[in-house]
Amino acid sequence: MGNCSSKSSDKDANKPTEERLKIMGYHFDQSYRLLDNKKNEYFKFKNQKDYEKLGNIIQKYVQEIITQKYGLIEMFIPLDSNPNDPKCNIFMTESLINQTSNPKSKLLLLIQGSGAVRAGLWARSVCINDSLIRGTVFPFLDYAKENDFDVLIFNPNFNSDSKTNKKIKHNESHGNHGKYLWETFIRNSQAHDIYIVAHSRGGATTTVLMNTFWDEFKERVKAIAFTDAVHGYNNLSNEKSQFLESNSYDWVASNKPLDHPLGTSNSIKILSSGHTKHEYTTGSAYPSILTFFTNKISSQQ
Predict the structure, then answer these.
(1) Tens digits of per-residue pLDDT, 74-130?
(2) Where are the domains of the chain?
(3) Bridge-partner residues for 227, per DSSP?
(4) Beta bridge partners of 136
(5) 220-237 b/e with 16+ CB inside 10 Å = b?
(6) Which of 13, 34, 96, 267 has a beta carbon 3.0–4.6 Å from 8's, enabling a disulfide?
(7) What are the phi and psi torsion angles at 119 (to 5°)?
(8) Where residue 280 falls among pLDDT bands split at 50, 70, 90?
(9) 106 and 195 Cβ atoms separated by less than 8 Å
(10) Cβ–Cβ < 8 Å for 202, 156
């Protein structure tokens, strides 16, 4: 799907995603858990090549669900690029593209961390070894639909063409990706209340947005849910520190129960995600994140 996926060299690359999964010997059950076709058992690691191939198929599978089940639109950026230039795919609700068509008052930004992970996934390993509920943005898309949000799913790790290594304009880095999305889509959105989920290095992307667009950011952003985030919040002004103290939490990897308080860092209140592994923090903490957002929505009314 789009330029974001790594190009598979196998002969099955153009077959339907579910068929490719079946050929590899797997399927997802109704709970979005990956199971072996023969024994109905959970995934067992065989070799790195098959693991990477499976990860790429699942990435495409997730993005198909985002468009087909949840109805988000796949867009390719930058919008002003030439046809042969490399592009990055992102996903958003239709009303975010066409502001005259039922614009929303709330906007949800979903920003993942660094590495091989692409738009819609928090961690490929969690998708493979646990479930798509914990490893993807699906719970947040359900929440957005139920609460009338527009949605924008970032794709900050897709910075260059996989064949030529040519950098994608405006997407050379996490920060540049975020700034382009703000200037192109977020700024023009009619949503006056913005909610952010930022995992791992997504915290640093959020920092860039806050520092670059501070006057807009402080007026429109109502809540930030960090998950085991890399913040880069050094030498913040008192105004920014107070903003983060009032409007954000960071759910981190910990052996403590979910929401157990763990102090503060750079004015951000730190809570346990209820899981000891970094890559599981968003999938483990999402019920509390959604409660945090719901409480913030109530306070705006």
Answers:
(1) 999 899 888 888 888 999 999 898 876 677 899 999 999 988 889 999 999 999 999
(2) 74-300
(3) 199, 251
(4) 121
(5) bbbbbbbbbbbbebeebe
(6) 13
(7) -55, 130
(8) very high
(9) yes
(10) yes
| DSSP letters spanning 38-92 | TT-PBP----HHHHHHHHHHHHHHHHHHHHHTS-PEEEEE-TT--TTS--EEEEE
End-to-end CA distance of the chain: 40
pLDDT in tens, 176-225: 999 999 999 999 999 999 999 999 999 999 999 999 999 999 999 999 99
Question: How big is the chain, counted in residues?
Answer: 301
CA 25 to chain centre: 28
- Tell me, which fold does domain 74-300 have in CATH? Rossmann fold (3.40.50)
Predicted pLDDT of residue 169: 84
Could you give the CA distance from residue 34 to residue 292 in angstroms, rounded to a whole number? 30
C-beta neighbour count of 242 within 10 angstroms? 13
pTM of the entire predicted model? 0.92
Report whether the peptide linkage leading into residue 78 is cis, meaning its omega lies within 30 degrees of zero: yes
**Buried b or exposed e, range 31-56, using 16+ CB within 10 angstroms:** ebbbbeeeeeeebeeeeeeeeebbbb
Q: Are strands 261-265 and 248-252 parallel, antiparallel or unpaired?
A: unpaired
Is beta strand 221-227 parallel, antiparallel or unpaired with respect to 248-252? parallel
Segment 229-242, tens digit of pLDDT: 987 777 789 999 99
